Amino acid sequence: MQTNILANADKVLNSLAEYIVKKASKAIAERERFAIALSGGSSPKKLYELLASPAFRNRIEWDKTFFFFGDERYVPQTDADSNYLMVYNALFAPLDIEEANIFAVDTALSPEKAAIEYTNVIKVFFTEKEWRFDLVLLGLGDDAHTASLFPGTAVLHDTEPAVKENFLKNKQVYRITFNAPLINQARAIAFLVYGESKKTAVQQVMSGARKTELYPAQLIAPQNGEVQWFMDTAAAASL
Ligand code: 6PG
Description:
- It is a single chain.
- Strand 6 and strand 7 (173-178) form a beta hairpin.
- The strands form 2 sheets. A 6-stranded parallel beta sheet has the order 1-9-8-5-2-3, with helices on one face. A 3-stranded antiparallel beta sheet has the order 4-7-6.
- The mean pLDDT is 97.
- Helix 2 runs parallel beside helix 3.
- It has helices at residues 9-31, 45-51, 83-95, 111-125, 180-183, 199-207, and strands spanning 2-6, 34-38, 65-69, 71-73, 135-138, 163-168, 173-178, 188-193, 226-232.
- It is built from 6 helices and 9 strands, in the order E-H-E-H-E-E-H-H-E-E-E-H-E-H-E.
- By secondary structure, it is of the alpha/beta class.
- 6-phosphogluconic acid binds at residues 39-43, 71, 73, 83, 139-141, 145-147.
- 6-phosphogluconic acid (6PG) binds next to strand 4.
């Protein structure tokens, strides 16, 4: 695990954007395509806008880049909570990304069917036995969840790679999420975490006792890949 701690969010976002450029060119050079699983929520929106900006828009071969979602809220793609909608507005539309390069969760299906269907989409995309994303972007919740792997939920005990539906009792909503075995098959995983509100979760995940039920982000440990943390000093303040 490598931690990149920078002075402020802008520096963190630029550092992660440069890392994505590097991973994309390596993947495309080796396998002629770059498969990335995007994270949702509010933190990565600025990252996606930065990638679509003049500073980065011409530095990745977007036609050879294939976008997946590490998790999705179980809402229509037109809903303000939709990760797909957030990424569409921040990245896909400004870069005019081809639909064929975007693999969104079909939230028009039932939660269980949406998860099964998305698992099959991934299985078909990766011809090899292992479904190895070149890069999985992750965020970190204040409660130390990542993707939609929330504390105390059954999906934390999965042993086989898959996409699963996850019902969040406290919010009375469904999420559709990569499970940890699927994330951990990735060649590279990058956490984007900034802001003072994250400092406790960062400390719990990175230097607290191993309590994966409480701190699900501790499940992230790729068998044959790298994990990089991109944080500002505020999020790293309790380390
Ligand atoms: C989501 C995300 C989720 C997110 C964390 C942090 O769909 O919400 O995938 O795991 O990364 O909740 O969210 P913020 O970046 O909004 O703090």
